[in-house]
Amino acid sequence: MIRAQFRKVKDAVENNLDKAATKTGLTLHRNEPLKQINNAKKSQIEKPAGDAVVIANAKPQAERVVLDDAELKCSEMASDIYKYLVNHEKKYVLHPEFMNGGEPTSKMRKILIDWLLQVHLRFHLLPETLHLAVFLLDHMLAKKLVKKTELQLLGVSCMFVASKFEEVFLPDVYDYEYITENSFNKKQILQMEQLILNTIQFDLSCPSSLIFARSISRLLSEDNAGKIDEQAFFVAYNMIPKSHIAMASMSISLKLCPVDGINNEQAENLMMQNMDCKRSELEHASVLLAQAALKMLKQEKLFACKQKYQSAKMAQVANLITTEAKQKLEKMSEIL
């Protein structure tokens, strides 16, 4: 019944359209059923020209890009990067007597850094975090803004700021509160964080000795057929964190632990050439670094650094400091 009524309406509409078309002179084309492509005599898809072969259901394959070591290590820009780092770190060099005049003494600083090293190991932080924390601590002490009663608060706050800048998964502020045995609360740590950032004007871009040591080891590895031994590599990190002192640390480590295929004099010339350093500056830095290493070895109470480098992760390089190595360090510290 409904279909019959629908047909009547459809026929009436078509008759009215035909009458209107005859009056206006238009021709209406009725919709014809669609033809299937498979029934067509001529193929709708043209074959590729030449001897190309078409594979059915072929999946596109991604080409693997092979990069050279020179591209990954940015060899073309290495010299410009070294020049920038050397020029950039000069504005962060502190006066040798930056500790004088303030309440905290150099002995207090040594004890604090030894404790910060234990905190660094406890939280499993990156080496860059420790270097940045020491950098922030020294610049705050140079400004004479901290009392000796707040020295531990300054140290843990510097580590907190450094972990925010360097780490991906950083400890919570309550972890730092707990590590101080609740001597300082969250509010005090956050207030000290604001004081640190405002004092340094949010400038955390100082290159550390770790960056220079890695650059130097890469230079020496590329210049020679054999790679630098891990023992000499890690001994270079077992020094005080000063950016321009990395060359002296590498030179001392190569003298204490010689590496086959690397001449110490040639290595020093290569470092001075790439780091824009004079021979007198390298010798002066080597003397200062040897003296600092001897002082560290004589202080038995500050054991955190020695304990760190006795671990298997650090290739147990602390065990390489024998009596013969100490005698070599004493000779290096006496050369002026």
From TrEMBL:
Cyclin-like domain residues: 114-198
Pfam families: Cyclin_N
Keywords: Cell cycle, Cell division, Cyclin
InterPro entries found in the cross-reference section: Cyclin, Cyclin-like_dom, Cyclin-like_sf, Cyclin_A/B-like, Cyclin_N, Cyclins_cyclin-box
KW Ligase (keyword) present: no
Any one biological process term the GO annotation gives: cell division
Similarity field: Belongs to the cyclin family.
Name by which UniProt lists this protein: Cyclin-like domain-containing protein
Species whose genome carries this gene: Caenorhabditis angaria
Lineage: Eukaryota, Metazoa, Ecdysozoa, Nematoda, Chromadorea
